Amino acid sequence: MVLLTGSLSNSRTFNILRQEAFMHRFGLVTVSLLIATLMVSAPAFADSPETLAALSKDQPGARDNPLTGRYKGAALILQTHKAFDELTLPSAAAIGEEYDATRHFGQTVTAQGEVTRSIYVTPPGRSTLEVVKNYRDTLIAKGFAPVFECAAAACGPSFRKQTYAWDNKATQVEGTDLDHARLGLVEAVFDSSKDIRYSLLKKDETYVGLFGALNAGGGFGDISAALNDRVSVLVEVIEPKAMEQNIVVLDSSALGESLEADGAVNLYGLYFDTDKATLLQSSTPQLSEIAKYLTANPEAQVFVVGHTDMQGGFDHNVTLAAARAKAIAAALTQTYGISAARLTAKGVGPLAPAASNQSEAGRAKNRRVQLVLR
Q1: Using an 8 Å Cβ cutoff, are 286 and 371 in contact?
Q2: To bridge 247 with a disulfide, which of 105, 167, 234, 268 should be the other Cys (CB 3.0-4.6 Å)?
Q3: Which residue has the higher pLDDT, 219 or 42?
Q4: Residues forming beta bridges with residue 210, ordered by sequence position
Q5: Which one, of 339, 335, 272, 338, lies nearest residue 307 by Cα?
Q6: CATH label, 252-373, candidates 1.10.10.10, 3.10.450.50, 3.40.50.300, 3.30.1330.60
């Protein structure tokens, strides 16, 4: 048993210890005792002037979505906008406790299109009900209808943890070119909150998710102190929009040149159903060019290698990458008559990135299929 003494001035240390406490909740020290000890020994924090300044003005370049507008006096502190992306939103209460590894939403809705994720923070002294209801009523007046709504305990014990969490990067609104103060807010917002409310609304094929909570304490020191008693609202909007086809199909000549020069070539013109190994019709142009090269070079034998980004579980990504590589090899054999003996399908998932996974642009480069001469 480790004795915790002194003050914990590093809020990240506090969060790591808190996470480990949950993971070992049946050990000699209970979660409640450990957290109580940490909270007693932690120093009192004053509001950070830098954080307060960030809470009073919008993130540079961020804009309100015309559908939702903003609550009067709130600041748009964080925003991520994608011209085309996929987003999964809860459409039922959360199942499982916060520390439960199998926690999940009872039901979800997944949609693709133009995605905007924004976090607004109000001045102190407002209620979550008032703020979220303002957004909700605005959308109702524009013809939106509720799909799912919940408040407090009715949302389920792990709803907040699954919707936005300091230790789950996939849930966070990161933005780009953030200053130091906003980088701190990325993880600290929603860290410790109460009076949770959620509304999922839909009009035609447009979805809007509203997740609001009152910040109350938290493990990020002066950043949490600055957020205290302020309502934070995560506004997520998915608007239907066709994906721009910006990937240039690599023709057989260029494909062959890359293989001869480098022994491998990255291909981005092969498309699949989301989280599946089903090839889409839009993959035909690139498949045809691969087949053209292999037909013109009958001695060539290749590995077909599937790659993913770092999002999602590792084992799942490796399995998915392998299944997609096999689907490509099968299509080349069945549709174009390429001998199966010349094609070896493998999946490496996120193990060989072509770029950093810290940005969407980098993750897009990592989601690819590679041909490697063997």
Answers
A1: no
A2: 268
A3: 219
A4: 199, 235
A5: 272
A6: 3.30.1330.60
